[in-house]
Backbone:
């Protein structure tokens, strides 16, 4: 089981990538943090704690003594920028993975899937973005019209 502080760091990270706005639900509304935590822990147990340790280490460079979750959204952005320009490809890959998994958890069908019933509904992010769901073809494009 991940440390609660690691879960808070992940929640802060996904909220930084896709924050809620007046027009759009955020990553936390879509439970993208749960999606990412599940993926990480299923595939590499303990990786969420390692991710939090890394985020917290970079946070200390932005504001001494602060954890990543304690930083403002602007300060968290500084952490992401520092990590994305690090000389280590592994560190840059961590930021890339956070971005990809957060966008995936927020905008994919994952957040509209009810695991208890197996029902799939369009996630709220689709309507907010003006996406009407998958298309099974466009007759005008195919020449069928």
Residues:
């Amino acid at each position: 089981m991940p440390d609660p502080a690691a879960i808070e760091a992940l929640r802060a990270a996904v909220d930084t990538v896709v924050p809620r706005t007046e027009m759009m639900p955020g990553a936390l509304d879509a439970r993208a943090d749960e999606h990412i935590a599940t993926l990480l822990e299923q595939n590499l147990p303990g990786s969420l704690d390692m991710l939090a340790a890394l985020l917290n280490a970079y946070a200390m460079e932005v504001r001494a003594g602060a954890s990543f979750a304690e930083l403002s959204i602007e300060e968290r952005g500084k952490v992401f920028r520092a990590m994305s320009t690090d000389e280590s490809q592994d560190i840059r890959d961590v930021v890339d993975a956070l971005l990809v998994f957060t966008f995936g958890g927020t905008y994919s069908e994952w957040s509209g899937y009810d695991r208890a019933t197996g029902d799939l509904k369009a996630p709220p992010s689709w309507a907010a973005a003006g996406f009407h769901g998958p298309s099974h073809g466009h007759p005008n494009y195919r020449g069928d019209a």
